Amino acid sequence: MKNISDGLRRAGQAFTATVCLSLFASSALATDYYVDSVDGADESPTGSLASPWRTLSKVNGRTFFAGDTISFKRGGAWTGSLYPKGNGTATARITWGAYGDPADPKPKIIAGAADQYAIQLWARPYTTIQDFDVTNNLNHSGTATGQDNKIGIYVGLSAAGVTATGIKILNNDIHHVRGYTAKINDNNTRTAGIYIEVRDSFAGERYKFHDLLIEGNYVHDLSAVGLYFKGPNWMTQTDKTWWSTGVVIRDNVFDHTGSDGLTLTACDAPVVENNVCLDAGGGTTNNDFGAIAGLWTCSFTRNTVFQFNEVARTRSPYVNGADGDSQAFDVDYGTEGTHTFQYNYTHDNVGGILIVMPKQFANSTDLVKTTIYRYNLSVNDGRSTNSSSQFPVWPVLGKSDVQIYNNVFYSTRPEGFRIRDNSATYFKNNIFYITTVGIYPTKTWFSNNCYWGHTANVTDPYKLVADPLFTGPLTGAGADGYLAANYDRFKLQAGSPCINKGGTIANNGGRDFWGPLPANSGNTDIGMHEVPNGVGSGPASVTIIDSAAAAVTYSSTTLWTHVNTDQDFYALTKSATDQLNQWCQVSFTGTNVSLYGRKFNNAAKLTVYVDGSPTPAAVVDCYSPTDMWRTELCRITGLSNAAHTARFVITAHNPVSTGNWVSLDYFQVASVTPPELPVVTDIDDTAGSYTGTWTTATTDPVQYGKTYHQSSTTGSSATFTFTGTGVRLLATRAGDCGKVNISIDGGAAVQKDLFMPIGFASSLDFRSTVFEINGLPNTTHTISITVDASANPQATGRRVQIDQIQALVGGVVVPTEVIVDNTDSTGVTLVGTWVASTFAPPFNGSNYLHDGNTGKGTKSIRFTPNLPTSGTYEVFAWWAASTDRATAVPFDITSVSGTTTVPVNQRLNGYQWRSLGTYTFNAGTGGSVLIRTTGTTDGYVMADAVRFVKQ
To answer: Using CA atoms, how far apart are residues 116 and 915, in angstroms rounded to an integer?
Structure first.
């Protein structure tokens, strides 16, 4: 087994070295003792270096005193359980450690079948356990099979009124501990590589740890939890005096643990930093792990800090094949206060990044907690098709909110990036660099985030849709090693559009991912890097005014109701009435104001008047056939940057609405005008003209209008007529969905794949925006959707389920994109023999091609898109980079201006969309990208896919 603590340790992270023997003696009465498993003798009267003792029973039978050191010879081995006795003091510790040649192996403590613990330390203040090699792999029957309650190093408390201060567990190698992985009957909570416990006792007895340090340990290849800190059953949320304090867990490596990497309970303000946690849940082949996390905190903890940690490949399959939690981090039941996760690096965790559970647990009171997730890097987290999302959060609004800001979320995974919907979760100043699919909820709060590489169907009033221009290269991002995976590559280039585009956040920690925030950096940047002296246009400052705030007045104190317990509304407050001619008025200062609230099937219309003008500024229709919370109902812009009032009067209702209700949520005010939103007209699937074989549903509550049309028959089509400058198609994405071909006004068709490997039926992506085009003349158009004969190779069917279209007028233009993959049945022309491969993921589609490094100059592949409209397009290519690739592959881009050759070094910048430049193309198939093998004798030529993005 490699020394992973050396290979993954980040620069500047110093493990505590073996303490020199000359420093062991701390007082005049202190004594140094030595134990040698080969040349020692228990008959020795002194246990000196010249005459050491031999056995564990000798040292276990003796009580030591402050300042003593007990050193075991390196290269030796002892079978049984080491049981240190004696108490140190603040100025004279008792130290248990190693002596001999530092190049020799650490002294081994090998627990026997009857031993519960390899090393057991009971309520011994100011004691150090360091530099041991510890195993406990035999079950109580004497075999190394099955599960059992065994522990590597145990630190316990069971004496009434005791505070065990100053215990240190340092630089031990703890491995092959026989434990329980299944979380049943609480067995999993009684076994670990390192187990810290405040034991259950008689009522009224209290005890705790203080200034406990666990540092530099290598905990690996266990069938148990890596480190478990367990509190007793007598603990309560109100009895915080006896929660352990001053707990620091740092510089440890947890590798291939059978269950969680670290589980933390019963602590006040613990710090977990500079740890590496790899393959939690991967230390055994048993298929019964239960729900786990990499590093997490649970009941009776508050004010935790997790920082500078790396967590990767956490996984946890249940017996039934579904995945457990499997996130990097977890803030679980019974936690309170502020839990901060900052400057961490997570990658390839099956379940995603962070799970936050509700406030209550067993005997807890009504808790209040805030979870802060800031300046972290996530690469390809959320790899399971069964996990619910990267952020499965269940906080309770007003009691346990989650603030996620200035992070980078980078993913090329085919599963995409998914966030669970929750009203108490806030995303601000983050970069979502997702090259496949992003699924954003509707109740969650988004502001000032950057979205790139995918269609971001998200309500973010100040969203930035642009390439963040990372320093790169992004090839290799996601490798093990805190620095190896991201040293400088996710910093922003000087010309990044993310500079100064973030919203201001108070108390943001004072540093970015790399170090202290520059003193003169200007306004806040988006992402985890703050650029010194960055040049940008400045942030869009946003003010939220709750519907119950003093700045909001109502026409009646009796006809309006104000509910402050509705989790679907900001700050829990819902203000509602169903009476015509009632009004609500907000006073604000800024150039624009938006009203957010609920759309539903018995809602009314609102007429808006600004600054007392008798002329309406807008008429707002709050009707929707299905419930929509936290929806922007109205936006008033173009005002002077001064004080204003806006009055919203209930005047009528949509003819199809069943009532006059309005439910108001909050107002959003800014002095910088946000991007223009399009005027949206919803058109149900029932308005389409259908040919071929279709089935329908009329009572499905998750579909717009409760209706949909569905077909798996090739050539079946639907045509809608709409008026506007653009159109969206909303449909279902799932693991059994096929492909569709979409045409505007009879023009060239664009193919869209509706496949999404999410897994659970309850997690299907309904009402997903699968196609959007805009920039059309503001006239009447048609959109035709035809079921294609093909499907993604991973799909289990070819189902196409159409829900609705949305006609658009105005708004921010969403780039039209056309992707041509090497597996497409049309638009790909090969000359010569090309080899299909899946060896180097991630790749676009189901595989990629290479030239076999043969026949140079005789092979080529042409990608020909069928572009729906004429105009300027940015051209991208995708390839699998490696050191054996060619360094100057000619890419010939044929456009209106002729043919331009771009040489590409395929050893760099792969596994992502890389720009080849911007060119003008006519609609149709006149343009192309040709990849040739001419002059590529220094390596393989790769051909995967090209992408055309309308500018």
So the answer is: 60
Looking at mean pLDDT, say which of 163-172, 568-577, 769-778, 909-918 comes out highest: 163-172
**Contact in structure between 499 and 536 (CB atoms under 8 Å):** yes
Tokens of 461: 């009033």
How confident is the model over 277-326, as pLDDT tens digits?
998 986 554 445 567 889 998 888 889 999 999 999 888 755 334 446 78
User: Do residues 347 and 322 touch, judged by C-beta distance below 8 A?
Assistant: no
Nearest alpha carbon to residue 802 among 923, 634, 660, 686: 686
The DSSP bridge partners found for residue 669 are 543, 593
| Token duo for residue 514 | 């790399």
Tokens of 722: 């709409």
CA–CA separation, 418 and 386 (whole Å)? 12
Provide mean pLDDT across the span 439-456.
83
- Show Cβ contacts of residue 623 under 8 Å, excluding neighbours closer than 6 positions: 599, 600, 601, 603, 604, 605, 653, 654, 656, 657
- Burial (0-12, 13-18, 19+ Cβ within 10 Å), 241: exposed
Tell me how many helices (H) and strands (E) the chain has.
Answer: 2, 75
Write down the mean pLDDT value for the chain.
83
Tell me the three state secondary structure of residue 15: coil
How confident is residue 864, by pLDDT bands cut at 50, 70 and 90?
Answer: very high
How does DSSP classify residue 53?
A: B
Q: What is the DSSP string of 123-186?
A: S-TTEEEES-EEEE---TTS-S-S----EEEEEEE-STT-EEE--EEES-EEEEE----S-STT
Q: What is the C-alpha to C-alpha distance for residues 897 and 88, in angstroms, rounded to an integer?
A: 82
Instruction: Over range 435-446, report the average pLDDT.
Output: 78
Read off the pLDDT of residues 757-768 as tens digits, 9 standing for 90 and up.
543 333 466 777
Give bridge partners of residue 648 from the DSSP assignment: 584, 608
The answer, yes or no, to whether residue 9 has pLDDT greater than 70, is: no
Q: Residue 618: CB partners within 8 Å, gap ≥ 6?
A: 607, 608, 634, 636
Q: What is the DSSP letter of 796?
A: S
Residue 228 has pLDDT above 90, yes or no: yes
CB atoms near residue 543 (< 10 Å): 14
- Give the type of residue at 872: T
**CA 515, 517, 520: angle at the middle one, nearest 5?**
140
Residue 119 · residue 148 · CB < 8 Å: no
pLDDT at position 177:
92
- 880 Cβ partners below 8 Å, 6+ apart? 839, 840, 841, 843, 848, 850, 910, 911, 942, 944
Sheet holding 293-297, edge to edge: 117-122, 151-157, 192-198, 225-230, 262-264, 293-297, 327-331, 352-356
| Omega prior to 842 cis, within 30 of 0 | yes
Asked if 74 and 106 count as a contact pair (C-beta separation under 8 A), the reply is yes
Q: What is the token pair recorded at 872?
A: 């300027």
Q: Element (H or E) spanning 58, and its range?
A: helix 56-60
Who's near 549: CB < 8 A, 6+ residues apart? none
Q: Where are the beta strands (DSSP E) in 1-61?
A: 32-35
| CA–CA gap between residue 135 and residue 123 (Å, rounded) | 22
Closest alpha carbon to 341 in 368, 378, 367, 313: 378
Say whether pTM exceeds 0.90. Answer: no
CB 263 within 8 A of CB 228: yes
